[in-house]
């Protein structure tokens, strides 16, 4: 049974958006691995505390992640 972990900054994605991430990651995996494995796949979305994620040598905050997301 495959297990896929996705890590995101806390407070950036809504509950609905996290559900969409789970569904689409599972779907994408299934396109490669087959439907039987997709049906047995677990996807976990982990929210990382603001300031606890380093990017390019700098601690990121939720506000930083939201700004990155807004840029597309």
TrEMBL record:
InterPro entries cross-referenced by the UniProt entry: 4-OT-like_dom (IPR004370), Tautomerase/MIF_sf (IPR014347)
Domain 4-oxalocrotonate tautomerase-like: 2-60
One of the record's GO molecular function terms: isomerase activity
UniProt keyword list: Isomerase
Keyword Secreted attributed: no
Family as reported in the entry's similarity comment: Belongs to the 4-oxalocrotonate tautomerase family.
PANTHER family: BSL4019 PROTEIN, TAUTOMERASE-RELATED
Protein name as catalogued: 4-oxalocrotonate tautomerase
UniProt organism field: Roseobacter ponti
């Amino acid at each position: 049974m495959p297990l896929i972990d996705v890590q995101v900054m806390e407070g950036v994605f809504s509950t609905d958006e996290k559900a969409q991430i789970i569904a689409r990651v599972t779907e994408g995996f299934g396109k490669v691995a087959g439907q039987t494995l997709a049906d047995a796949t677990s996807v976990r979305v982990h929210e990382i505390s603001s300031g606890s994620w380093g990017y390019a040598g700098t601690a990121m905050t939720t506000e930083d992640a939201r700004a990155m997301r807004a840029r597309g």
